[in-house]
Amino acid sequence: MIVTHLTLSDFRNYRSLDIDLAPGSNLFVGSNGQGKTNLVESLGYLSTLGSHRVSSDQAMIRQGQDSAIIRARLAFGEREILAEVQLNRASANRAQVNRVAIKTRELPRYFSSVIFAPEDLALVRGEPSGRRRFLDELLVLRAPRMSGVLADYERVLKQRNTLLKSARASGVRESQLSTLDIWDDRLVSLGTELIVARSALVAELAPEVASAYEAVAGQDHSAALSTYLSILASSAGSDDDEQDAAATATGAIAQDFVADAFRAALARLRRTELDRGLTLVGPHRDDLVLSLNGMPARGYASHGESWSFALALKLASAVVLRRESSVGDPVLVLDDVFAELDESRRGRLAAAVGDFEQVLITAAVFDDVPEELAAHVVRIRAGEVIEDAG
């Protein structure tokens, strides 16, 4: 898939932007704060309905304006479509494909991208919530229906936690326990689907991550992935640094096994959950475990190793998406990445992304980017294109 044209209206610092993009590498150059990342952020929003920088859509609407528009012309094979979304301050966002209104959540069906940015170092060094979000966003890109599963799980989890808090505050009543059983069944059903999907995804990602890490770092540090499952842990509510090794799984997991383990964990912990007013097990408490040479990457990996691992996760994601896509490669975005890499890693990264259909790169310094990735150069200043050297 290729983005052939991008239009922005009142998005971030862009009052108005119209720009043609080319197949292969597109390099956006400009000083910090000029709008390079804003430009690629807009395309990331089209594929994930979120930003890799902020949690609120409101921050992406230009100051003083009521709405912002992102419009992209996409080409794959002989087909071309126009996808657009309008972000609104005071009402629901709206989306269109080929000028026909669609539900906003359907946009990822039409466009796929993978963004790597400095913030992604948190995938290695940060909290489990970021790694869960990484897996879930990839699940939705592969199967958009999973967005509904995730939303339903969060809704059931919230309702169950409300019931637990109410029972703790008022004293447990028989009617509350019977209602809790109903929520347990729904939580297990949705949570099992999510756990099974995540574990299958991790199993598919693992060999690609190992290969991508070696390609970027230039050496084999046995980069590996596994899944920490709270439903298998011997204790609940422990610190993330004290995860039970027995609860760590490698490879895909059978649905019946997960459902039985989930129910058993909820039954075992019911008294504790009622005391604490909180659901202590489930996919909302799980983690993606990253390791190098058999040691946890979080806390042990050096800065360079952490960067290489984070890059490997995103490159592996792109490989997995392209493998089953009917519309070609995802658009690969490298946001301000090369400044953090030494010369040898820059060259290896350039080689690793060279065969993708389209790569979008941002850089503050032109010379930071290998020459082979500078085929189409666009210079940005204060939210405007000042030079298109394509």
Report strand order across the widest sheet: 2-1-4-5-6-7
- The biggest beta sheet, please? 6 strands, antiparallel
Per CATH, the class of the largest domain reads Alpha Beta
Based on the coordinates given, report the CATH architecture of the largest domain: 3-Layer(aba) Sandwich
Indicate the overall shape: globular
| CATH superfamily caption of the largest domain | P-loop containing nucleotide triphosphate hydrolases
Helix coverage percent: 40-55%
Query: Could you give the count of β-strands?
Result: 16
Q: What's the pLDDT, averaged over the residues?
A: 90
Identify low-pLDDT runs: none
Proportion of strand residues: 15-25%
Q: Spell out the helices and strands N to C.
A: EEEHEEEEEHHHHEEHEEHHEHEEE
State the secondary-structure class. alpha+beta
Number of DSSP helical runs? 9
Domain RecF/RecN/SMC N-terminal: 3-363
Function: The RecF protein is involved in DNA metabolism; it is required for DNA replication and normal SOS inducibility. RecF binds preferentially to single-stranded, linear DNA. It also seems to bind ATP.
Pfam family, one: SMC_N
Keywords: ATP-binding, Cytoplasm, DNA damage, DNA repair, DNA replication, DNA-binding, Nucleotide-binding, SOS response
Describe the 3D structure.
The chain is of the alpha+beta class and about 400 residues long. About 40% of the residues lie in helices and about 25% in strands. It folds into two domains: about 1-110 and about 325-390, Rossmann fold; about 130-300, RecF/RecN/SMC, N-terminal domain (Glutathione S-transferase Yfyf (Class Pi), Chain A, domain 2, Up-down Bundle), CATH 1.20.1050.90. The chain has nine helices and 16 strands. A six-stranded antiparallel sheet has the order 2-1-4-5-6-7, covered by helices on one side. A six-stranded mixed sheet has the order 8-13-14-3-15-16, with helices on both faces. The chain has a four-stranded antiparallel sheet with strand order 10-9-11-12. The model has no long low-confidence stretch (mean pLDDT about 90). InterPro entries: DNA-binding_RecF, DNA-binding_RecF_CS, P-loop_NTPase, RecF/RecN/SMC_N, RecF_2. The RecF protein is involved in DNA metabolism; it is required for DNA replication and normal SOS inducibility. RecF binds preferentially to single-stranded, linear DNA. It also seems to bind ATP. This is DNA replication and repair protein RecF.
